[in-house]
Amino acid sequence: MSDTDTVDMIHEDALPGHESELEPKPEWAPRYPGSGRLDGKVAIVTGADSGIGRAVAALYAREGADIAIVYLCEHDDAAKTKAIVEKEGRKAITIAGDLGEKDFCESVIAQTIDAFGRLDILVNNAGEQHSDKEITDITEEQLKRTFQSNIFSMFFLVQAARPHLKKGAAIVNCTSVTSYQGEKELLDYSSTKGAITSFTRALSENLIGEGIRVNGVAPGPIWTPLNPFGGSSKEKLATFGEKTPIGRPGQPNEVAPSFLFLACEDSSYMSGQVLHPNGGTIVGS
């Protein structure tokens, strides 16, 4: 896919947005030294150019993994994530394109196998959201795009990855607190996150017999480019995260450890589960 193609994917509300243009900058840096929990592993992290994905890539690299950084079109952000991984002494490749397209998802897996020869961890993190006050404001095009980006992509990637995932592999899907609570201005987004939660549970049942664990992470309001660049209304952005019990939005490096835990042997007796780094909000499991 060419740079022109990926540039054309940028939506009218400026999504997905560049972390390089965001102030204040999200906190992505790991908070502690690595302990080799992912030594020799290879991970694909979608949406790894910025936000939670960048923090996950950085932490995985610190723990010993090589990373395939998958993103839409934010080449400057992706280059920085690649440099972060390499500074940790690990290898990284960048792959740009539309995860809503099956052919591209197949290419992601093929390029990763070509570069590293194996695949141990698949992190389905990439997604998009659009704020709409009324259900009638959601266009057919937006509805299709949100489902393509957020849930179709996970099916396509897992389908392509399945032949390469061996016993001990892990899949970690990013769902959301909106899957459990709903969000009145994020009707299509919340619906996809509910689908991701169900997908995580069903896929776990499907793969656990093969020794492949599938779990999820459901972040609350996290300071990433997703909301400031069109994912939230200006009114909600003004008090973003303040309604959580902790009283502030979370940072990407406060979410990444959940992704690490579910990818490594620390969680060897967990599958079909969801962790909730959401600022103290109590939700049903």
Automatic annotation (TrEMBL):
Entry GO MF terms: oxidoreductase activity, acting on CH-OH group of donors
Region annotated Disordered, chain positions: 1-33
InterPro entries: NAD(P)-bd_dom_sf (IPR036291), Sc_DH/Rdtase_CS (IPR020904), SDR_fam (IPR002347)
Composition bias, Basic and acidic residues: 8-28
Taxonomic superkingdom: Bacteria
Claim: Transcription is one of the keywords in the record: no
Keyword annotations: Oxidoreductase
Span of the signal peptide: none
Family the entry assigns: Belongs to the short-chain dehydrogenases/reductases (SDR) family.
PANTHER family hit by this protein: NADPH-DEPENDENT ALDEHYDE REDUCTASE 1, CHLOROPLASTIC, NADPH-DEPENDENT ALDEHYDE REDUCTASE-LIKE PROTEIN, CHLOROPLASTIC-RELATED
Protein name (record): NAD(P)-dependent dehydrogenase, short-chain alcohol dehydrogenase family
Species annotation: Allosphingosinicella indica
Lineage of the species this protein comes from: Bacteria, Pseudomonadati, Pseudomonadota, Alphaproteobacteria, Sphingomonadales
